[in-house]
Amino acid sequence: MNDTSYTEAGGGRADGVSDAWTERLTGWLAGRLPTGWFTGPPEFTVDRDEIVIVGTLPAPELPADTGEAARDAAIAGRIKQFREDTRSRRITIARELEHSTGRKVAWGVKCAGRRELFTTLSVPVMSRLRQPERQVLDTLVESGVARSRSDAIAWCVRLVGRHADAWLHDLQDAMAQVRTVRDAGPDLSGDPSDD
Questions:
Q1: Measured CA distances, 170 to 80, 162, 174, 176, 183 (Å)
Q2: What pTM does this model have?
Q3: What was the pLDDT predicted at 5?
């Protein structure tokens, strides 16, 4: 993989990722991840700061009469075993990808309906808020829902994400359609005097 494979600042998306970039990343992961780590191709999400790779682990084989506590413990054990057994290889792969993309790489797994992310990036985000919005944050802090304004903002974002999944999904689909239409448009990069 060369250093320019993933440095494309694609087509105006907020995260700077084009469909071609995503396709190359998918191919690179398919070729680079060891066979047998996951039950299928991993999912990944990308923003301007981080790539999060999440693979699916096979569920532990347990007798049908296994209780919920034992099943939860087996799933937790499977995830912990994967995390410990693959740590050095994941770090090596992450470093290669970080060098090529300029983004941090985080890992996670899904197993029997449980999703767990390993060490992920926490990025400060600047926001200018007027008094009514600041009062909302301060109310969350004063009531003990959040420890700080920063935690209150994160809480609000998670709440919106949880309750607006369908709307956010529709919005992401619409943005993908805009990229497709824009990419199919005329090439305006040439010199008009060439015509």
A1: 35, 14, 6, 10, 20
A2: 0.69
A3: 38
User: Which residues contact residue 29 at a Cβ distance below 8 angstroms, ignoring those fewer than 6 apart?
Assistant: 41, 42, 44, 53
- DSSP 3-state of 5: coil
Domain that holds residue 152: 124-185
Instruction: Tell whether 105 is covered by a domain.
Output: yes
Flag residues of the chain having pLDDT under 50.
1-14
Q: Are residues 65 and 112 in the same domain?
A: yes
The DSSP call for residue 50 is: E
Supply the pLDDT for residue 193: 53
- Cβ atoms of 147 and 133 within 8 Å: the answer is no
Task: Please indicate, yes or no, whether residues 96 and 107 belong to a single structural domain of this protein.
Answer: yes
53 touches 105 (CB < 8 A): yes
pLDDT value, residue 26: 92
H helices of 19-164, in order, are 19-32, 68-101, 131-142, 149-163
Residues 141 and 81 in one domain: no
